[in-house]
Amino acid sequence: MRISRSMAVDGSRKTKTYKQIAASIRAAISSGDLHPGDRLPPETDLARELGVSRPTVREALKVLEALNVVESSTGPTGGTFVKPLNGEGVAEYLIDSMSLLVDINELTLEELWAAREVIEVPLVRMAALRRTEQDLLVMQKTMQMDESKDGDSIVSDISFHRGVAEASKNRMLSLFVSSIHKTVKTLAGRYVMPEQALPEVLRISQEQHRLIYEAIVGRDAGLASSRMREHLSWPTGFIVKPS
């Protein structure tokens, strides 16, 4: 594997050297010069090839690890390897980024819920038109599992919504849905609903899931969209947990 030195270390740019190296390695992956599972040269060799210090190379690799682009291991067969590229890794990166925004109070549950409506209403329309019999079986199974559980959370199980996302056959939107749902569940721990109201809220949510499912079964995209929009209307009754 060879990384272009001119591309990696361009003194005319203001971008820090380690960022240029990280960008070059990503470019090598995008161009097909590097493939998932490929082992990168040792830090010393990379530093020599690129004409930079070893700590600079190490910093670039740390950036790529944080982005789930590479992974490192120790031992005789260890080293730094290009990670397999899949949706789960991208989703985890998005979740980490959104969770950080949540932690510093730059995102609220209301904002995340509104984002769900923007994405999931058109998504369920796609699902109604593109779903397969296997998709229907997955959604039906998740509904049965949800209805058999005793709810103790203000956020219903996300499995049904992930099933709808998969049925849409749009991988990009599915990634966003998965990331937002997991972040919503994390943030929901900061909110509470009066205990006596929770069973009714969960019952209504499960009923709405079934109505959405029936519209998808009938391939009625318009009805599925309107039912999803109603389902995602901002629920009332939440209060912030006392510190």
- Let me know the largest β-sheet: 2 strands, antiparallel
Please tally the β strands and state the result: 4
Radius of gyration: 23 Å
Structural class estimated from helices and strands: mainly alpha
Mean pLDDT: 81
**Tally of DSSP helical segments:** 11
Strand content: under 5%
Low-confidence region ranges: none
Q: Please bin the fraction of helical residues.
A: 55-70%
CATH homologous superfamily placement of the largest domain: GntR ligand-binding domain-like
In CATH terms, what is the architecture of the largest domain? Up-down Bundle
End-to-end separation: 53 Å
Number of domains: 2
CATH fold naming of the largest domain: Four Helix Bundle (Hemerythrin (Met), subunit A)
SSE run: HHHHEEHHHHHEHHE
Outline:
elongated
Physical arrangement of strands within the biggest beta sheet: 1-2
CATH class of the largest domain reads Mainly Alpha
Report on the structure:
The structure is a single chain. Helices cover about 65% and strands about 5% of the residues. Helix 6 crosses helix 8 and helix 7 (about 135-145) runs antiparallel to helix 10. The strands form 2 sheets. It has a two-stranded antiparallel ribbon. The model has no long low-confidence stretch (mean pLDDT about 80). It is elongated, with a radius of gyration of 23 Å. It has about 240 residues and is mainly alpha-helical. The chain has 2 domains: about 5-80, Orthogonal Bundle (Arc Repressor Mutant, subunit A), CATH 1.10.10.10; about 85-240, GntR ligand-binding domain-like (Four Helix Bundle (Hemerythrin (Met), subunit A), Up-down Bundle), CATH 1.20.120.530.
